[in-house]
Write a structure and sequence with these properties.
Helix content is 79%, strand content 0%. By secondary structure, it is mainly α. It holds the Pfam family DUF6198.
Length: 214
């Protein structure tokens, strides 16, 4: 049985379980990486910077930025799915809940444990989210739209992430070794989890390119 036929036959409840498990795990990963104070991924540098400069929680800014990103879908002719809308609403809530619940680590060893667990969790969450097949994340839809306008995936993603990283750093977001660890590890780890969540390498790559996700 092909992975595509498997995805087609998978029941909606099963896909929704994957979706919300992925969002919960992703939000937990975001919260723990932020709490590690070792450096965030580019988008969360931006979200944290907005929180530092303008107030409101990081999770609230994740929701606001996600909703704003969807507005950019209109000229890019992107169509949201259930997963897209759920991403906008729930990812920030799960991130804020983790930041609120997780003890602030005192030792460097615990901070590194937070960081490493966060990166692994985000990679697994990405595989679950993509596996649900219910729509790309709002930020990833911008990249997919730019690709449809003629940019390569690598160029589109680089332009977006460099822009939000620089803006977030200027606003006061945390850039550090964790940012580098995330950049280096997230791709291989996501690829590792894809087949273990019943996605072949070829299908994982196709889904990632189509939906664009840690």
């Amino acid at each position: 049985m092909s992975e595509l036929s498997l995805s087609t036959r998978t029941s909606l409840p099963n896909r929704l379980v994957r979706l919300y498990a992925g969002l919960m795990l992703y939000g937990a990963g975001i919260g723990l990486q932020i709490e590690s104070h070792l450096g965030n991924d580019p988008w969360d540098v931006f979200h944290q910077g907005l929180s530092v400069r303008f107030g409101l929680s990081i999770g609230t800014w994740i929701i606001i930025v996600g909703a704003a990103a969807m507005l950019l879908w209109i000229p890019l002719r992107q169509k949201p799915g259930i997963g897209t809308l759920s991403n906008v609403v729930f990812l920030g809530l799960f991130a804020d809940a983790t930041i609120w619940l997780a003890p602030t680590p005192d030792s460097l060893a615990v901070r590194w444990a937070y960081l490493l667990f966060a990166v692994v969790a985000i990679a697994a969450a990405t595989a679950l989210y993509i596996g649900a097949g219910l729509g790309p994340g709002p930020r990833d839809g911008i990249m997919t739209g730019l690709v449809r306008l003629g940019l390569s995936i690598r160029l589109a993603r680089t332009l977006i992430e460099v822009t939000v990283l620089a803006a977030g750093w200027l606003l006061g977001g945390t850039v550090g070794v964790g940012t580098l660890v995330f950049a280096v590890a997230i791709g291989p780890l996501t690829q590792f989890f894809m087949p273990r969540l019943r996605f072949s390498g070829a299908q994982a790559q196709e889904q990632t390119q189509e939906q664009a996700r840690e």
